[in-house]
Amino acid sequence: MSERDEDQADALFHALADRTRRDILRRVLRGEHSVSVLAAKYEMSFAAVQKHVAVLERAGLLTKRRSGREQLASGDVEAVRSVASMLAELEQVWRGRIARIDELIALDNDKQQ
Amino acid sequence: MSERDEDQADALFHALADRTRRDILRRVLRGEHSVSVLAAKYEMSFAAVQKHVAVLERAGLLTKRRSGREQLASGDVEAVRSVASMLAELEQVWRGRIARIDELIALDNDKQQ
DNA sequence: CCAATATACAACCGATTGGTTGTACGTTGT
DNA sequence: ACAACGTACAACCAATCGGTTGTATATTGG
């Protein structure tokens, strides 16, 4: 695994490790939302929400599109899938362990016969 | 989604948002490793690695088992799967958006006929 | 034209993070 | 018995995080 991939993984998991950001992500996956419309949903300053959006954007989990004075944020499902595939990879590592255990059991059965 | 679930999600994503911890998780998913054996693999102090293991343990991504003076850590694939299912849920949110777009297209086609 | 709106960004703050060293304590091998 | 080993945990530190307020800039509606 390359250094770039690890940086990307750091950014993705970090972005997801905050409930406000996960909630923003759910909203923008549902459809486009301007930053100020998003900000209105939370009991924190506009600037705070804007920072959360920026973290999600840097991780690639959402993209922004200008429309007049508004900035419309939209969730990127491909980035979500890339995280899912990292976890699938981890599960594969675990499957290898089970396969090795099964192999040992099989060898043991052979011996006993 | 309950507050407890959100706390758990915070802990899980935070635990995964560090490359050393992801690497430790890969190793312990492959099989049991003592904390000191894990510590030997990284260019940082034993205490630092021990803290990383503790973060993974608190998130439920690994469990420890005492064996004499050693503490054997083992990865928990169920916790990995629970993260994967959170992402699947996000992807479902996105699918709803697509479904609504398709619906609008269908309505538009009806009008034009 | 200009007041209101939407955004961006810097500076600041307390809490948390990821690392260190040092100390303490149970377990083990000789 | 005791030195070496494996672990736990506290105290500390610099850097980052999640939040704030304040300021600047571009766009819009009346």
Question: What does the model show?
Answer:
2 copies of one chain form a homodimer. By secondary structure, chain A is of the alpha+beta class. Chain A has a single domain (3-112), classed as Orthogonal Bundle (Arc Repressor Mutant, subunit A), CATH 1.10.10. Chain A is built from 5 helices and 3 strands; from the N terminus they run ααβααββα. Chain A has a 3-stranded antiparallel sheet with strand order 1-3-2. Chain A is elongated. The termini of chain A are far apart. The relative contact order of chain A is 0.13. The interface between A and B is medium-sized, with 30 and 30 residues. The structure holds a DNA duplex (30 and 30 nucleotides).
Break the fold down into its secondary structure elements and pairings:
Two copies of one chain form a homodimer.
Chain A: H1 3-16, H2 19-30, E1 33-34, H3 35-40, H4 46-58, E2 62-67, E3 70-75, H5 77-112
Antiparallel strand pairs in A: 1-3, 2-3
The structure holds a DNA duplex (30 and 30 nucleotides).
